[in-house]
Amino acid sequence: MTIEKSCIMLLCLFSLTITCSKKDQTIDPNPAPEGYSLVWSDEFNSDGAPNPSNWSFEQGFVRNRELQWYQESNARCENGLLIIEGKRERVSNPNYQANSDDWQKNRQYAEYTSSSLHTRGLHSWMFGVFEMRARIDTRPGLWPAFWTLGVNGQWPHGGEIDIMEYYQGTLLANVAWGDTEPWKAVWDSARKPLSAFIDPEWATWFHLWKMEWDEKAIYLYMDDLLMNITDLSTTINRDAEKKNPFLQPHYLIVNLAIGGDAGGDPSAIVFPARYEIDYIRIYQK
Predict the structure, then answer these.
(1) C-alpha dist (Å) from residue 87 to 67, 80, 110, 117, 225
(2) Bridging pattern class, strands 142-150 and 250-258
(3) Helix (H, G, I), strand (E, B), or coil: what is residue 19?
(4) How far apart are CA 194 and CA 203, in angstroms?
(5) Which of the residues 20, 68, 218, 284 could staple to 230 if both were Cys, CB 3.0 to 4.6 A apart?
(6) Backbone torsions φ then ψ of 25, nearest 5 degrees
(7) Any idea which of 30-34, 90-94, 99-103 has the lowest mean pLDDT?
(8) How far apart are CA 149 and CA 252, in angstroms?
(9) Strand partners, 76
């Protein structure tokens, strides 16, 4: 074999390696946890709208004084991914009331749109391993999340688990339950600044977020980095009923918020913004 041919073959092999390393971001590297069986998943392998037997959608202005109008059309499945797309576009608010004190009604327009998908009324689970493999956009003003709410009880007394939440340069892993007053939460929150990761291209890669949840504790991970542990003996609601909201089924939510109480200022972003999910899987014993 000539030196020229050898060089060409090495160059091709190098190119193939680089190509595969990028493509393999969407190839499953994660088998079922030992002792667990897969009970539910969405691999997002069929192009088009998300599977309606798995997902419903939130609509309009929903929470946290966020800037986006949630609508179904901003979510689609494409090339094996669920893509939730944030856009800068003006949408009229059909609930507009000029003199209302309600922020959801006193905005005549939304200047941004996005999607929020949930399994409420379709699927819920108590205990198990919950996994999502995804790539998030970390630009200022964006607020992607992968989280759960309890099927019973007004927030926060129904319980909230933020398996992944990101805004303003920080990854969060949170658990919340009810305080003595309605709409007031007790938080067990862990934060990790994005600047703590050595890889300058962290945001260009897919990452694995995971929750391990049993009757004793909730463990929240990012790429096998343990972000937070919550002892469920401490998560008793502080109201008169004294219930533990993490001893009941929870349903899933995945959404991309824009701005709002915590999201930051999105005005400098060149849209669209994408939250790309390879799969979501739930395992139980």
Answers:
(1) 11, 21, 11, 16, 32
(2) antiparallel
(3) helix
(4) 9
(5) 218
(6) -60, -25
(7) 30-34
(8) 7
(9) 83
Question: Bridge-partner residues for 92, per DSSP?
Answer: 109
- DSSP string over 211-257: EEE-SSEEEEEETTEEEEEEEGGG---SSSS---TTSS-EEEEEEEE
pTM: 0.89
pLDDT band at 222 (very low <50, low <70, confident <90, very high): very high
pLDDT at residue 17 in the model: 40
Place 239 in a pLDDT band, splitting at 50, 70 and 90: very high
Second CATH level (architecture) for the domain 31-284: Sandwich (2.60)
From 227, 232, 200, 198, select the one nearest 213 (Cα to Cα).
232
Instruction: Give the mean pLDDT of 157-178.
Output: 98
Asked if 82 contacts 252 with a C-beta cutoff of 8 angstroms, the reply is no
Asked if pLDDT for residue 18 goes beyond 80, the answer is: no
Rounded to 5°, angle at Cα 232 from 187 and 234: 60
